[in-house]
């Protein structure tokens, strides 16, 4: 059965202050679908990591936030899209401790551990799209 | 520019973070705190994050770096009030904040700072 999109909202991501607004949006909808405090904290933290990546590495972009429903199960789906330089080696970027931005290199692999579904598409010179889903158990 | 207030309590500095952290704000706090430690000759810093709903890798790294800088300047840092969900998420993210002193609340944090200060004499 196909995943149904209940509603969608988009957040522009150009600065670190936009990251805060995006985080607040995720918090509000996580509460709306009744995620536990722990699941909400995990998905908001993952969103914060990926939104920062979009701003810092992707030269800005967009977060699409959706409430989705699959066979009566609700979840939050977040897609981060940028038109930045892209990721040449996705496997390397997903490994712990790899960083090009002088950070700890926990953003992508860490965000992946905090959600149920994680998809990353990237083309060098075109951009990157990361999609995550956190389902309500 | 928005700033997080730093309160002086004797030889200690108290920082209560009550707003959503963004990267520039965290960097400003790091700068202000190291300046204050040097100027006041503070021996301890208490950082209360009980109002923070998330700590991501950037904010976590800023906290760890600030504590390391404070130590080099002669001050110990105790992090207090972390919410359980934040602790679980931080460790799952891969950030364990090694070398950071922690306590459950401000009162216990102040007691810990006093013990550490006494042990350094």
Q: Any overview of this molecule?
A:
The complex is a heterodimer of chains A (137) and B (121). Chain A is of the alpha+beta class and 137 residues long. Chain A is built from 4 helices and 5 strands; from the N terminus they run βααββααββ. Chain B is an alpha/beta fold. Chain B contains 4 helices and 5 strands; from the N terminus they run ββαβαβαβα. The longest helix of chain B is centred in the first third of the chain and has 18 residues. Chain B starts with 5 loop residues before the first strand and ends with a helix.
Structural class of chain A: alpha+beta
| DSSP strand count of chain B | 5
The SSE order of chain B reads EEHEHEHEH
- By DSSP (H or I, 4+ residues per run), the number of helices of chain B equals 4
Number of helices, counting only DSSP H or I runs of 4 residues or more of chain A: 4
Strand content of chain A: 25-35%
Number of strands of chain A: 5
Mean pLDDT figure of chain A: 93
Task: State the order of secondary-structure elements of chain A, H for helix, E for strand.
Answer: EHHEEHHEE
- Which structural class do the helices and strands of chain B define? alpha/beta
Strand order of the largest sheet of chain B: 1-2-3-4-5
Helix content of chain A: 25-40%
Low-confidence stretches of chain B: none
| Pair of chains with the largest interface and how many residues each contributes | A-B, 27 and 22 residues
Give the oligomeric state of the chains in this entry, treating copies of one chain as homo and distinct chains as hetero.
heterodimer
Cα(first) to Cα(last) distance of chain B is: 39 Å
* Main beta-sheet strand count, sense and barrel state of chain A: 5 strands, antiparallel
